[in-house]
Amino acid sequence: MLSESAPPLEHDAGDQSEARTSSGHSRAIFFLAVASFAAAATTRVMDSVLPQIALEFDVSIGSVAFVATAYAFAYGAFQIVFGPLGDRYGKYRVILIACVGSMLATLACGLASSLTGIAAARLCSGMVAAAIVPLAIAWVGDVVADNERQAVLAKFMSGQILGLLAGQIGGGIFGEYFGWRSAFLVIAAIYLAAVAGLLFVLARDREATAAHIRGNGSIWQTLDVFMRLLTRPVVRFVLFLVTIEAFAMFGAFTYVGASLNLRYGFDFATIGLYLATYCIGGLAYVVQSRRLIRIFGPGRLSFLGTVLVAITYAAIAFAPSHHVYLAAIPLMGFGFYMLHNTLQTCATQMAPDARGSSVAIFATFYFLSQAVGVFLAGQVIDGFGFAPVFLTAAVLLLFLGIVMLTRLPPELSRRF
């Protein structure tokens, strides 16, 4: 058990007995969803614009991999920073400041004149955007009553899912017709709308945006909790799983759009539409998730998901036609969310006495592993092409599925 002096990073349900969803809360949640839409779009827009950036600066795909890596690295590293800051200074206000920073950093991405400038702006963007979604979810937990919270969070998270879609589609379409910089300028404008809305709610209804400050834990105490969590075998096991997942899945997926461009000469608008089918596959899983979980259980569900993803990566590695991508990408999204939904649930259960801290560590490993995977895959593609990257991802993910099918600890599987 963690010591009683450790700072709580989530709040007891009993603290929320008088919480309610006021009109001020509803307005705030809407604009928080707008902010999460922009943050999600920023995360995935690089899938479509990466080959465009390489083309403009006349460099190889591997040479611009660090631009994509910078965002994922910073986003992952700063997950563990903003929880204590939100508790100490107020989640709503920290989110508002993060949105201003994200707007400025995204604007800088669109205006940068060098690869180094783009990477620096993406690094800053990832640092500040890391606050938005986790703190917004925590703030909803503060202000929304228990019996309403799940439905409210579902509506809030729809903004993030739509943002993923918009980032992939918009990055391709805006890049094709107005240049890749326009995609970042549009996202910066969406951040501006979120900032204006959050300021409006703050000025109009101070009570609705109450800070919910918890001053009983320092950042150093929180870091001590993180270190002690890492001594638990079940925590290390889940972090091992998510490291493989993120490294393999997104180290390869980031270059699916580039392979369409270089193999088949697709324009960037079409690439964006192809990549967007990945999110459609994910949404299809969400619709059927209750039924699938009930039928298969966590181990078999995640294993079948990795089989789907492995097959689709192998298919596009040797695709004789672009039509293979059109069938493979949505199936890849469906399979990935079968796996990732199981891992997310494991993350919430691996340390119930310190759930906030354990989920923060999970997110940190998830995004840092993406950053490493994207960078290394870019180097392999420059030297050997796309097929080795896609096939390696297939093998690693299939291995992951077998581990989850045969080695998932009982303390995790019985809680599903």
UniProtKB/TrEMBL annotation:
Gene3D superfamilies: MFS general substrate transporter like domains. Keywords: Cell membrane, Membrane, Transmembrane, Transmembrane helix. Pfam families: MFS_1. Coiled coil: none annotated. It is a multi-pass membrane protein. It is found in: Cell membrane. Residues 28-412 form the Major facilitator superfamily (MFS) profile domain. It comes from Aquibium pacificus. This is MFS transporter. It comes from the Bacteria. Residues 1-20 are annotated as: Disordered. The chain crosses the membrane at residues 28-46, 61-82, 94-113, 119-140, 152-174, 180-203, 237-256, 268-287, 299-316, 322-339, 359-378, 384-405. Residues 9-18 have a biased composition (Basic and acidic residues).
